[in-house]
């Protein structure tokens, strides 16, 4: 160490200027990582301007340019990298992790179909008289008008009496076909795309401490990298060296920050030290946070009900449930079934039965969209995802969180390089001004 000091002393070191370099690079390192985090998460939605003609030529631009948020939509501006890639991250999360954690059937069973059925009955029973009357007057007014009032009352009463059995059959039917009518991947992608702030909250909630450490380490890395830069600067006294080396420092600072969070996924020993990615190190706690947000904002009973009726398999769900409900219409008519069938004609009775069953599907599943009940049932989903997430190999867990932004990390590195370049020019300008004084 003394020999290094002797060599530096022989160069006629300006120690004030020497130590100003690592101090500058420490400040720049802090700013690089702080602003880099802002670039990762903000803004949630694209902010910028639309450039006429850009959308048409965007597809022919270099791939890296196309990856800049907004370019493919013909805009110049910015959207946080994480919210901009929310749908992609949802797809990757399902493919690499959620599909290993649980199937559609697992999710449905965790929501406790028996409790769902009981809730539907509680909500639906008081509405039966009005709903049956409304459906019949709308769909078959002549038949309902000609049916004697006492018989109408009997039909409504029988529907109410058989409601638990009917609803139980509906929830069993959903469970039997859940893999065909419910796709967790589509639900996750749709919800992440509709509300990108979900994935931002996931990152910030379970990575709050790590993200703060990344900013602090930006200053530490910047300071340490600034020392060899100061040595080179004092050795050669070439003004453009600082901006050029600033590019290297800025790029390396962001790279080290990303490695700190994501690498290595599996613990490694270097001598007496054990190193592991910060996110992987806290997989246990992070899994609970991940489960909380998925259960609260994504795979909820409310969203499942919406997905079943209006999702890609909505028509199939309606047909399946209508077929399951048709026997209930027969049972509701009860002993009068044969007489009513003869009175109105077989074809017309079958049409009435089918249309009433189809109309009843929406009413039967409407209670699934009850936000308060959905929140109550979310605890099991949260526990399931958290437990399965903890069981993932650390590498899979880290990949799940990193995969969506991995392709865009170059933007952060480029941002660090640009800030390092600017910091180098600023240092040159300050000390040129200082020397003039």
Quick summary:
It contains 24 helices and four strands. The protein has 437 residues and is mainly alpha-helical. The protein has a domain at 100-193 and 286-394.
Binned, the helix content reads over 70%
Order of helices and strands: HHEHHEHHHHHHHHHHHEEHHHHHHHHH
Number of strands: 4
Distance between the termini: 34 Å
Mean pLDDT: 78
Which word captures the global form?
Answer: elongated
Number of alpha- plus pi-helical segments:
24
Strand content: under 5%
Structural class, judged by helices and strands? mainly alpha
Gyration radius (Cα, Å) is 32 Å
Major sheet description: 2 strands, antiparallel
Strand order of the largest sheet: 1-2
| Poorly predicted sequence stretches spanning 5 or more consecutive residues | none
Question: Secondary structure elements and their pairing?
Answer:
Elements (H helix, E strand, L loop, with lengths): L1 H9 L4 H27 L5 E4 L3 H5 L4 H4 L8 E4 L2 H4 L1 H16 L2 H7 L2 H12 L3 H12 L1 H6 L2 H28 L1 H4 L2 H11 L2 H40 L4 H22 L5 E3 L2 E3 L2 H4 L1 H16 L2 H10 L3 H20 L3 H8 L1 H20 L5 H20 L3 H13 L2 H28 L1
Antiparallel strand pairs: 1-2, 3-4
Helix pairs in contact: 2-14, 2-15, 2-24, 6-13, 6-22, 6-23, 8-11, 9-11, 9-21, 11-19, 14-15, 14-17, 15-24, 17-22, 18-19, 19-21, 20-21
Care to describe what's here?
By secondary structure, this protein is mainly α. The protein has a domain at 100-193 and 286-394. Helix content is 79%, strand content 3%. The protein is built from 24 helices and 4 strands. A two-stranded antiparallel ribbon has the order 1-2. A two-stranded antiparallel sheet has the order 3-4.
